Amino acid sequence: MFWAVVVLSVTTWQVLVHGPLARLDERLSRSLVDTVPRGLSEAASDLGNMTVALPVLAAAMAYAAWRGRRLAALYAALAMAAVPLLIVPLKEWTARPGPLEPWAHGYYPSGHTATAMVAYFGAAFLVSRRLVPVAAVLTAVTGTGLILRGFHWPLDVLASLCLGLLILRVSAGHQRSTGSTRRSCG
What we know:
mainly alpha
């Protein structure tokens, strides 16, 4: 996970100082926005909305609790609660304007991407590891939709993927340690 911390740190630094990576990011974004029909990119980006992603995670948590994995469900909930606790201060600190709204600030990192990643991977970890590829596709579609629609710069999405990975790593680590404890005691 060291590389995720490095990538998150470098992208944050570049956004803060409006460095060459951030300028390249902006040029790349301008070439990508609206290259697919807006309805398609909006539908893809909506996968990161709380109203879409949270019910998926809630259903997986209920399933896990029903299967006797209450602590794992709790860790998934805590991971999701960590998303706004980490994203919002970063958005305020960086105050990055949006691709289509240069007067608005708070686009870095992408909350929708982090929400999608933590919700869908969290659900996959709770229900079946076989669903991890589905979680990866849903997260990738969300981030791609956000970029193609112009809701976020590519670095916003990349930073959120790194942050989401770190959150999931901590959550999954706790789930594994409690799962192994439960198995050894039972």
